[in-house]
């Protein structure tokens, strides 16, 4: 089986306090962190054991994972396994990056987001430059709020040329054509994010070759559809995998709509679907 898995454990703590994020400056208790570590290690063990499958893994924690040693270790260990096609994580890049030297850079990738006002611009750019120089595959992105436009333009100027800079349309924000053109000058693919995509009744790879898994092993087709398909650890989910259409009216998040079969995004991002890097970038 060729399977893409989006994993989101109980971790919900973050060292940033972005005003557009409900998990800003949230702290998990010691007990919660232990539970997250145990859940992640269980998932990592499952992934390592699936040698008969080809797996692509994306960690999408609510909080910041790379400040925790168990996420860094999981990414490193999984990157060396021959049946893991890709292992990636969404991160604010606030933590140290030296650990990537121990990973297989043909498999590891990072989906990085710059949050203006949360970390010095120069520090963030220096980290991206260092990752690029060391051959660590990564994309960088910014939430497309009006007050972030100057920072995004500056990022595009100062980031390594080979690093793709994506722009996420801000939740609830409507863009005029003139505003959209300004963002598209930074990210030529911004049009895919500008509007929510109609999805009701349209075929989607989620629930067939893409699944979402939580810390207990509950499998759903994606993060945005709550129907359960079974459990990862008892294998009950496998019998439920089949072609499906989307039950939601629209899909407005990249990690969801990128899997819609009615959109050409598997071609647009060929080889970089999980880390959000366009083909040939």
From TrEMBL:
<dbReference type="InterPro" id="IPR058240">
    <property type="entry name" value="rSAM_sf"/>
</dbReference>
<protein>
    <submittedName>
        <fullName>Radical SAM protein</fullName>
    </submittedName>
</protein>
<dbReference type="InterPro" id="IPR047771">
    <property type="entry name" value="Radical_SAM_STM4011-like"/>
</dbReference>
<dbReference type="InterPro" id="IPR013785">
    <property type="entry name" value="Aldolase_TIM"/>
</dbReference>
């Amino acid at each position: 089986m060729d399977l893409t898995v989006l994993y989101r454990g109980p971790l919900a703590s973050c060292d940033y306090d972005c005003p557009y994020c409900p998990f800003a400056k949230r702290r998990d208790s010691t007990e919660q962190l232990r539970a997250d570590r145990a859940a992640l290690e269980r998932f990592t063990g499952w992934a390592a054991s699936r040698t008969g499958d080809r797996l692509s893994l994306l960690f999408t924690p609510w909080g910041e994972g790379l400040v925790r040693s168990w996420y860094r270790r999981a990414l490193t260990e999984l990157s060396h396994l021959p049946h893991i096609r890709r292992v990636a994580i969404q991160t604010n890049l606030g933590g140290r990056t030296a650990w990537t030297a121990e990973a297989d850079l043909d498999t590891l990738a990072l989906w990085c987001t710059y949050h203006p006002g949360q970390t010095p611009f120069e520090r963030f750019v220096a980290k991206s430059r260092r990752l690029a120089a060391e051959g660590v595959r990564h994309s960088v992105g910014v939430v497309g709020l009006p007050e972030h436009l100057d920072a995004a333009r500056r990022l595009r100027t100062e980031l390594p040329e080979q690093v793709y800079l994506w722009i996420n349309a801000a939740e609830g924000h409507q863009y005029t054509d003139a505003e959209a053109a300004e963002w598209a000058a930074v990210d030529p693919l911004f049009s895919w994010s500008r509007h929510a995509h109609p999805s009701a009744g349209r075929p989607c790879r989620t629930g067939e070759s893409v699944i979402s898994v939580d810390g207990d092993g509950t499998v759903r087709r994606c993060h945005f559809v709550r129907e359960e398909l079974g459990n990862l650890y008892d294998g009950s989910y496998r019998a439920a995998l089949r072609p499906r259409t989307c039950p939601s009216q629209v899909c407005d998040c990249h990690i969801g709509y990128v899997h819609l079969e009615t959109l050409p995004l598997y071609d647009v991002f060929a080889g970089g679907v999980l880390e959000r890097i366009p083909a040939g970038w």
